[in-house]
Design goal:
single chain, alpha+beta, five-stranded antiparallel beta sheet, 2 domains, rod-shaped, 1 helix, Tumour_necrosis_fac-like_dom
């Protein structure tokens, strides 16, 4: 009987020891598994962070590209608008005889409009008003009788720019003259021709003319 009890106790202890060994092994395996999982998670997070940085860099490059593309499109649109802006005019003094002389400087109105693309020249006032900033080219010619002084001046905003002049002469039956100039104008600047006091020109058959055109916008 005592032997049987002793044998039972030994078997019980052996079973407990075996179970403890199994539990210890399971704990070790679980710890190793956890370490492996933590290591894998760290690798994943590192790779994810690197991918996120690359994504941010790509987004930044895309934004820069979009900005450059927008600027380029705006430049192209601006160039197209400039190409569409056409300003050309030619007008003649008209009439059927002598214009002047007057006892004061007078704006010479060219009433016969030949060309007026852009409608910048007014045949009511004789004044050209720049619709856009740019480089403009102006020319004027006159025909006049030689017995009177001929004096024409191109004016920009009340400032003298260029002039054409001929003295009166008893031996000279008729005179022809003119001048030309490039001008940089701002939008709204005004250009016109001034007939000098006590001078005259002829308007017969469109011989006295005033012309201008936009060469380039600036």
């Amino acid at each position: 009987m005592n032997f049987s009890i002793l044998l039972f106790v030994l078997l019980l202890n052996g079973s407990i020891l075996a179970q403890d060994a199994i539990n210890a092994t399971d704990i070790k395996i679980n710890r190793q598994t956890q370490l492996v999982c933590v290591s894998d998670m760290c690798d994943f997070l590192l790779k994810f962070g690197a991918m996120e940085e690359k994504l941010k860099a790509t987004e930044s490059r895309l934004e820069d590209s979009e900005t450059r593309l927008t600027n380029l499109e705006n430049q192209v649109l601006e160039l197209k608008n400039k190409e569409r802006t056409k300003v050309v005019f030619s007008a003649a003094a008209g009439g059927n005889g002598q214009i002047g002389p007057y006892n004061a400087n007078t704006v010479l109105i060219y009433r016969t409009v030949i060309t007026n693309i852009g409608s910048a020249y007014s045949h009511f006032t004789g004044i050209f008003t720049a619709p856009v900033a740019g480089i403009y080219y102006f020319t004027f010619f006159y025909h006049a009788g030689g017995l009177e002084t001929a004096n024409l001046t191109l004016i920009k905003n009340n400032q003298v720019v260029v002039n054409a002049y001929d003295h009166k002469s008893l031996q000279d039956g008729a005179d022809n003259g003119g001048n030309a100039v490039f001008l940089q104008l701002q939008e709204g600047d005004q250009v016109y021709m001034r007939l000098g006091a006590y001078s005259q020109v002829w308007g017969y058959n469109q011989r006295t003319t005033f012309s201008g055109l936009l060469v380039s916008q600036v």
